[in-house]
Amino acid sequence: MVTKKSTAKEKVSKPEEPQSQKTPPTETPPTPQKESTTTSKPEKPSTPPPLTMKQLHQELETIKQVVSEHAQSIIQLQETLARKRKPVASNGKVQIKDKQTDMVYPSKNNAYQSLLKSGELKSLVDKGMFGPDPEKNTFGWYALVREWPDRFEEVATAQNNK
Fold first, then answer.
1. Cα 41–43–49 angle (5° rounding)?
2. Rounded CA gap, 26 and 34, in Å?
3. What percentage of the chain reaches a pLDDT higher than 90?
4. Residue 110 CA neighbour count, 13 Å, CB half
5. Which of 19, 94, 115, 119 is 20 to 30 A from 7, comparing alpha carbons?
6. Number of helices and strands (H, E) in the chain?
């Protein structure tokens, strides 16, 4: 018997190829398909093409328009609610008389709110006397009296005299 000796050259010149393991396909029983329009192969989800700068600009402009329309709707609803609100009910303890117009207001806050809505306090609002949101300032009366101390006076009521 003759045995062949392997040399280092043979090993270097012939690298071993890795053998891939092939698994035999497993047979799965076909599932009964109901009548449908789907195909047996799953479809890859299609990716939309990338948006261009022009398309992005158009979408941004559309969104801006929608936002401004919503803002206008909100403003209209707030104005409608403000018109439907009942005036503040006075507790009857204090009434305020405006010496300049001879108007009598049922409360301090009512005097402030009425003058604010009529626009008579525009110069003070522009100065920032009543804060960033004058309509929500519940202490506006006190800033008003500090600015115009001689314009208003408290009127005695029947409950006040008791």
1. 160
2. 24
3. 20
4. 18
5. 19
6. 6, 3
User: Whole-angstrom Cα distance, residue 93 to residue 77?
Assistant: 34
Please return the burial class of 152, using the count of CB atoms within 10 Å of its CB with bins 0-12, 13-18 and 19+: buried
Q: Which long-range contacts (C-beta less than 8 Å, at least 24 apart) are formed by 121-124?
A: none
Contact of 155 with 95, CB cutoff 8 Å: yes
Chain segment 47-72, per-residue pLDDT in tens = 888 889 999 999 999 999 999 999 99
Q: Has residue 159 got a pLDDT over 70?
A: no
Mind giving me the DSSP string for 64-119? HHHHHHHHHHHHHHHHHHHHHSPPPPP-SS-EEEETTTTEEESSHHHHHHHHHHHT
Q: How far apart are CA 149 and CA 131, in angstroms?
A: 19
Counting Cα atoms < 13 Å in the Cβ hemisphere of 55 gives: 4
- Does the model's pTM come out above 0.85? no
Instruction: Provide the b/e sequence for 94-120 (b: ≥16 CB within 10 Å).
Output: bbbbbeeeeeebbbbbbbbbbbbeeee
Least Cα distance to 110 among 122, 97, 101, 100 occurs for 97
Spatial separation of the C-alpha atoms in residues 47 and 39, rounded to whole Å: 20
What are the structure tokens assigned to 32, written together?
């009964």
